[in-house]
Design goal:
Distance between the termini of chain A: 22 Å
Number of helices of chain A: 15
Largest sheet of chain A: 2 strands, antiparallel
CATH superfamily of chain A: Farnesyl Diphosphate Synthase
Structural class of chain A: mainly alpha
Oligomer: homodimer
CATH class of chain A: Mainly Alpha
Number of domains of chain A: 1
CATH architecture of chain A: Orthogonal Bundle
CATH topology of chain A: Farnesyl Diphosphate Synthase
Number of strands of chain A: 2
Strand order of the largest sheet of chain A: 1-2
Amino acid sequence: MREKYNNILNSRLAQNKSYIEKELKKILSDIAAPKPLKEVMLYAVLNGGKRIRPFIISEVSSLYQVGPSIYKYPCMAIEMAHCFSLIYDDLPCMDDDDLRRGKPSVHVKFDEANALLGGASLLTYAYNILASKNFSIEDKKKIALINIFSNAIGHKGMLAGQFLDLEAEKLSKKPTIKKFNNIQEKKTGLLLAFCCYAGGFIGNASKKELEVLYEFGLMLGRIFQITDDILDKEGNQKLLGKKVNKDDEQNKATLIKIKGLDFTKNELSKFSEQAKNKLLLLKKDTKVLSYIIDYLCSRTS
Amino acid sequence: MREKYNNILNSRLAQNKSYIEKELKKILSDIAAPKPLKEVMLYAVLNGGKRIRPFIISEVSSLYQVGPSIYKYPCMAIEMAHCFSLIYDDLPCMDDDDLRRGKPSVHVKFDEANALLGGASLLTYAYNILASKNFSIEDKKKIALINIFSNAIGHKGMLAGQFLDLEAEKLSKKPTIKKFNNIQEKKTGLLLAFCCYAGGFIGNASKKELEVLYEFGLMLGRIFQITDDILDKEGNQKLLGKKVNKDDEQNKATLIKIKGLDFTKNELSKFSEQAKNKLLLLKKDTKVLSYIIDYLCSRTS
C-alpha cells in the first residue's frame, strides 16, 4: 500500500517539478537583468529543490479544475520567494551555511553583496509574476493574492519568523512552547498556508473551503518543521545536502530540545492525523494531498 | 528671486515631509510585526531624510487634482523601498557606511541580520500599501502601478544598478560614459521616474504626458546623482550626515572621475536646462517642479 502511494506521489511530484523548473528557467532566462545578476538568480532558483510548495499549489488548484496555465503564476512566485529566503538564511549573519542542496550556497558561489541583490531581485520579481497580465484571473483577485502573499512573507510572516528565531538563539533560556509554535508558524507555516489558500482562491473555492485549506497549510508547516528538526538530529548529511546537528551548534530552539525526541515524534503522528482529518472537510478527492503528509513525514532531505 | 522660490519650495517640502512622516509613523506603528522588528523598521524609516521622492509624487499628483488621501499610498511605498535600499547600501558587504543622516546606520544600531530582515520587511510592506483596499484607484491601475514599481526596484532597476555599481568598483578601468550612465539610471533614475509617472498615472494623465513625466524623472535622477558625486567631493561632512570622499576610497565610478569636475558641473547645468524644458511640454503650472531642479542642484545634504 505504502509502495503504491509513494509511486503515485513521486510520479506527480516529479512531473510537477519538471514542469515548474522549465517554466522558472524560461521566465528567468527572459528577464532584462544584467547578465551576472541573472546568473545569480538562476543559480539560486535552479539549484535543485523538491518544489514542494509549487506542487501543493498545483494539487489544490487541480481540486478546483484550475489548469497549469493559471496556477503556474503563484507557483513561480512562491518558489522565487522561497529561494530568496534560502539565500538569506544561509548568509553568515543568519544561519551561516556554506552548503545548500549539496552545492555552495549563493553567497559562497558568488559573494554576499551579489547574494543579497540577487535574492531581493527574486522577491521583487515574484510580485511582477503575480501582477502579470498573462496571469488570467480577475484584477481584484490578483490584488487580494498579492496582499496575502506579502503577509506570508513580510513582517507578519516568514521574515518575522526568521527574526524571532534568531532572537531566540541569543537567549540561554529555551522559549515556551507557545512562543516556539508562533515562531515556527511564521517561519514555515504561513508560506505553506499561502500555497493551499492560493490554489483554492484562484479556483473560486468557498470561504469555508478557503479556511480549511489555510488551516491545512499551517498544519503542513508544523509537520515540515518537525521533520526538519528530526532530520537535523537523525538525518544523513549526504542525502540532506547540508550539515546535520546545526541546531545544537547554533542554539536553535527545536521541539526536540524543548520536549525531547519521543514527544516530538508523537506530535508528528498527531499532526499528521489532524491534517488528514482536516482534508476530509473539503469533501473532494484529496488523496494526493494526504499523500503529501506521508511524504513530508518520511522525507530524507 | 532665488530667495522667493527657495521659500516656496522649502515651505511645501517641509509641509509634505511632515505629512508623509506622520502617515509613515501611523501606518508602521499599526503593523502586527514582532516589537523589535517593528523597531528596526521604524528606525530605518523615521531616521530623518528629505522625503524628496514622496514630495515629487505629491507635486505631480497635484497637477492632476489628485489629493493626499490617494497619493499618500505611492508616497509611502516609494519611501519604504528607498529606506530598504539605504539599509542595504550601508551594509559592510556593500558601501560599508556606519553613518546615515548623522546617525548610526541600521546594521550598526541593530545588527546585520536585523537590518536585512527589517529592510526586506519594508520592501514587502510597500507592496501591501500599493495593494491596499484603502488606496482608492481602479484595481487595473493598482496592478499596473505594482508592476512599474517592481520594475523600478528589481532586477531591471535599483537592485541592478547597485549590482553593476559594485561590479564596476572591482575593475581597475573606469567604465565608459555609456555604461556609467546606464548604472546611474538604474540606480537612481528609475525610482525618480516612477515617482513622476505614478503621480500622473493616478491622476489619469495622457499617454504623452506620462512619457514626458517619466523622462523628466530620469533627468531628475541624473541631476540627483551628479550632485551626490559633487557633494562627496566638495560637501560638508556635518551637513551631509555621512563621510565625504567615500567614492575615491571605494573606487566608485563617478562622472567627476571619468570626465573631471568642470565637465561634471557643466553637465549639471545642461541637464537642469533640459529638465526645465521638458516640463514646459506638460503645459501646466509646473513652477514647483522646476524649483525642485534648482533645489537638487544647490542641495548641501
